[in-house]
Amino acid sequence: MRLLGNIIVTGLALWITALILPGMRLGEDGAGIFAQILTIAVIALIMGVINTFIRPVVSILALPITCLTLGLFQLVVNTLMLFLTSWVCSLFGLTLEFDTFWWALLAGIIIGILEAIVEAITGLGTADERA
């Protein structure tokens, strides 16, 4: 259930960010609504897998520079994970594109904020309290 919640939260954040930012493209423009929802769900799943397995390794390797920049380098790590997600999505024929590095950086910031807001409001993506 937690995996499904994470996919929903990430998908919502990706969709809203794509609506806000003109430098980010998500999915095909002429596709039907079901195809767009499916595309966003698959991209959110790919992003979740990358953030689960690759991001911790990159964060540990970047720890010295992150400490030196007082944590600001994590924004660059977020951006690199978005670019990696974009590359993996292109291998599967899915569209997640950014015009420049700066659009991807801004998208990473907005996605992080939106994920935190949606998780706080709905409780999706958080671990069950009952154990």
Widest sheet: strand ordering: 1-2
Number of strands: 2
* Percent helix range: over 70%
The domain count comes to 1
How does the helix and strand content classify structurally?
Answer: mainly alpha
Low-confidence stretches: none
Q: What is the averaged pLDDT score?
A: 90
Coarse shape: globular
Portion of residues in beta strands equals under 5%
Count of DSSP helices? 6
Q: How far is the first residue's CA from the last residue's CA? A: 14 Å
How do the helices and strands follow one another from N- to C-terminus? HEHHHHEH
Query: How large, in whole angstroms, is the Cα Rg?
Result: 15 Å
Characterize the largest beta sheet: strand count, sense, and whether it forms a barrel: 2 strands, antiparallel
Description:
This protein is mainly alpha-helical. The protein has one domain. The chain contains 6 helices and 2 strands. It has helices spanning about 1-20, 35-55, 55-60, 65-70, 75-90, 100-120, and strands at about 25, 95-100. Strands 1-2 form a two-stranded antiparallel ribbon. The longest helix has 22 residues, at about 100-120. It is globular and about 45 Å long. The mean pLDDT is about 90.
Question: Main traits of this protein?
Answer:
single chain; globular; mainly alpha
Summarize this entry quickly.
With 131 residues, the chain is mainly α. It is built from six helices and two strands, in the order αβααααβα. Strands 1-2 form a two-stranded antiparallel ribbon.
Task: Set down the secondary structure blueprint.
Elements: H1 2-20, E1 24-26, H2 33-53, H3 55-61, H4 63-68, H5 73-91, E2 96-98, H6 101-122
Helix pairs in contact: 1-2, 1-6, 2-5, 5-6
